[in-house]
Design a protein that fits this description.
With 373 residues, the protein is an alpha/beta fold. The protein has one domain: NAD(P)-binding Rossmann-like Domain (Rossmann fold, 3-Layer(aba) Sandwich). Helices cover 42% and strands 16% of the residues. The strands form three sheets. The chain has a seven-stranded parallel beta sheet, sandwiched between helices. It has a three-stranded mixed beta sheet with strand order 7-9-11. Strands 8-12 form a two-stranded parallel sheet. Helix 8 packs across helix 10. The longest helix is centred in the first third of the chain and has 25 residues. The chain is globular, with a radius of gyration of 20 Å. The structure holds nicotinamide-adenine-dinucleotide and 2'deoxy-thymidine-5'-diphospho-alpha-D-glucose.
């Protein structure tokens, strides 16, 4: 197997930790450098099981710090980037758009510029044997929102249960939130580096992920924890919005495939053809969590509380991942009901992880790492 020095950014976060784990365990000959600023969303506990592996190293750094990034590329002879670091929560972007522009746009540009500078002056692999690649992880939210033109459900031929249109790789960008606007801008910069400087880039746009280690500000872990604690479940608006859910390990497998086999300059959509109205998903979550907790049926139904809608709340996301399936042979491995059960069980089995995050104890526990520069 070829030796590689791969920089994974945002590896202490939710999806990044699954990608780091997969690469560290699967590619013993690769050196995996996990570069993360450790914002509130990064948690070293997410990688406890692999932190001592010989092919793994954690680097605490801000992707916006261009000089430091440049030095890291040189020091570790980086020949591949899988870029996940970002501010990722839509509600936070509504309150604080500047931080999202800074990290998601300027941070991405800083990585691209460092990669271009170093890769144009060095022979990657030591003898030029490795073709360096920049892989940018993006989101379906850049495409905007889809109509609900089949609101009663039913499987129209070629359509989804809530509409006949999907986001394809050709769908025009139309972001609505500061988060998705910043992600869209970063995607444009990545394409610009491919088109202008001939950099080997690849982009993927994925739908909503769920699974272990997700920060409990996002719908699924937040609601599982609230059900466990008998706390209200704040449903935005009428709970009619539709999201397309994918198990995080299936996303990590797609990232592995695209990094190694994706065509240069191309975009790949990743999704599970698994659309759920929020309110139906929430009812399913309540049912599964009550079952696992040993509560009687409908025990936690009363926790549902309809609250003011999210500003600019996109109505429906649905990804067409046919290209990824046909070109690279990827498809999701888990049925949603199975994935949700596994996820609920994981959060209930890992209450210490959850309690440490909710109480902020994780920031204390890893104080040295959070403070170190
Ligand atoms: P997350 O918020 O859980 O993790 C983000 C990580 O990035 C954290 O570890 C954080 O410390 C780090 N980070 C933030 N700012 C940084 C900076 N300036 N420098 C270095 N590190 C920094 O996010 P996630 O949900 O795992 O998402 C990861 C990526 O995948 C993001 O780019 C996101 O846009 C994309 N994505 C997420 C989803 C989803 O459903 N969660 C779906 C599609 C795409
Ligand atoms: O589609 C991919 C995106 O999925 C990623 O790019 C983002 O990084 C990720 O955060 C996620 O964005 P969403 O906004 O879709 O995820 P969130 O978990 O915040 O919300 C899911 C849906 O649930 C959304 O329609 C809003 C709704 N919601 C969310 C929360 C937190 C509620 O009704 N109540 C809540 O308390």
């Amino acid at each position: 197997m070829m030796k590689r020095n791969i920089l994974i950014t945002g590896g202490a976060g939710f999806i990044g930790s699954h990608v780091v784990r997969l690469f560290v365990n699967k590619y013993a000959d690769y050196n995996i450098y996990n570069l993360d600023k450790l914002t509130y969303a990064g948690n070293p506990a997410n990688l406890k099981d692999i932190e001592k592996k010989p092919n793994y190293r954690f680097i605490k750094e801000d992707i916006c710090n261009f000089d430091a990034i440049l030095q890291i590329f040189r020091q570790y002879n980086i020949d591949g980037v899988i870029h996940l670091a970002a501010e990722s929560h839509v509600d936070r972007s509504i309150k604080d758009p500047f931080t999202f522009a800074q990290t998601n746009v300027i941070g991405t540009l800083s990585l691209l510029q460092a990669a271009k500078t170093v890769w144009s002056e060095s022979n990657c692999g030591g003898d030029g044997s490795v073709s360096p690649r920049f892989y940018h992880i993006s989101t379906d939210e850049v495409y905007g929102a889809l109509e609900m033109n089949n609101p009663k459900g039913g499987d129209e031929p070629g359509g989804g249960p809530y509409g006949d249109k999907f986001f394809t790789e050709q769908t025009k960008y139309n972001p609505h939130s500061p988060y998705s606007a910043a992600k869209a801008s970063s995607d444009h910069f990545v394409r610009a580096f491919h088109d202008t400087y001939g950099m080997d880039t690849v982009i993927s746009n994925c739908s909503n992920n769920y699974g272990p280690y997700q920060f409990p500000e996002k719908l699924i872990p937040l609601f599982i924890n609230n059900i466990r604690n008998g706390k209200p479940l704040p449903v935005y608006g009428k709970g009619e919005n539709v999201r397309d859910w994918l198990f995080v390990e299936d996303h990590a497998r797609a990232i592995d495939l695209i990094f190694h086999k994706g065509q240069t300059g191309e975009t790949y959509n990743i999704g599970g053809f698994n659309e759920w109205k929020n309110i139906d998903l929430i009812k399913q979550l309540i049912k599964t969590t009550d079952e696992v907790l040993g509560n009687p049926p409908h025990h936690s139904d009363h926790l549902i509380q309809y609250v003011t809608d999210r500003a600019g709340h996109d109505l429906r996301y649905a990804i067409d991942s046919t290209k990824l399936k046909e070109e690279l042979g990827w498809q999701p491995s888990l049925q949603f009901e199975e994935g949700i059960k596994l996820t609920v069980q994981w959060y209930l089995d890992n209450q210490e992880w959850m309690d440490n995050v909710v109480s902020g104890q994780y920031l204390e526990y890893y104080k040295d790492m959070y403070e170190k520069r």
